[in-house]
Amino acid sequence: MAPELLLRASDISYSSGGKNILDKVSFELYRSQITTIIGPNGAGKSTLTSIVNGLIENHSGTIERLPSLKIGYLPQKVYVNTLMPLSVQRLMQLTQRAKEAEVDEALSQTNVAYLKHRQVHSLSEGELKRVLLARTTLGDPDLIVLDEPTAGVDVTGEIKMYELIGEFRNRLQCAVLLVSHDLHLVMSKTDQVLCLNQHLCCSGLPESVSKHPEYLALFGDQAADAIAVYAHRHDHVHDVSGQQESCQHD
What we know:
Mean pLDDT: 81
Distance between the termini: 37 Å
CATH architecture of the domain at 1-70 and 181-250: 3-Layer(aba) Sandwich
Shape: globular
Strand order of the largest sheet: 5-6-7-3-8-9
C-alpha cells in the first residue's frame, strides 16, 4: 500500500526586503516518512518550515494539506521570559488542551518526566529541547516539523535526539520534516532529502556515498566526514551570496 500523502508544496516562492528567499520549491510529504532539509546558511530552510506550518502565508505557489492535518512544531529558537513564572507542565499545555496524563506520557517519551514541575527558565538547553520535542507529540500529530532540533545540544544528546525522532515516527506513524546540519547523524535515517539553496537543488532518496564530488562542493569538509550522505548532482552553481549564477547542461 502506498504511503498517505499529507502535504504537497508546488512552486513555493517567497521574497522579503527585496531579497529572494525561496524560488519555485516543490515537494511532497508522506505519512511515516522522515524528510530532511539540508543546505547552507541562508538557504531558506527555516522559512520553508514556517510556510509548511502556515506561519508565513504571503508566498506564491500552493500548499495542499490533508484536511484537518495536525502539525507539531519545534522552532529553531525559543525565547523564554525569565521573569515570568512558567512550569514545564504549563508550557506543555499553553496552546493546546492536554490532560495531565497525556503530558506525563509525552515527557516520559523523551525521558524528562522529572522536569514536570520545574521552572522553564531553570532548564539547560538540552533539557528544554527534550521538553519541546515532547510537546510536539501532544494530540497525535500527523506531521512533526523540527527546525534544528539539536542546536545547542552536545554530541551525545544529538544522537539520542535523533533516536527519539525515529521512535516518534514509528509510534505515531506520522511524517517528520526535519531541518539539520548534522549530516553524519541524520542522513542514514532519512527517507527523503531536500537539498535547498533558495531553490531546490535536488531531492530524492539518501544514498551512502562517501565522496560525491557535487556533495563535497556544497558542504565541503563536513560532507567528507559524514557516515552516510546524499548522492546528487547539481546542474548549476551559486555565487557567494547564494544566488544561482550559471547552469551547465549535458
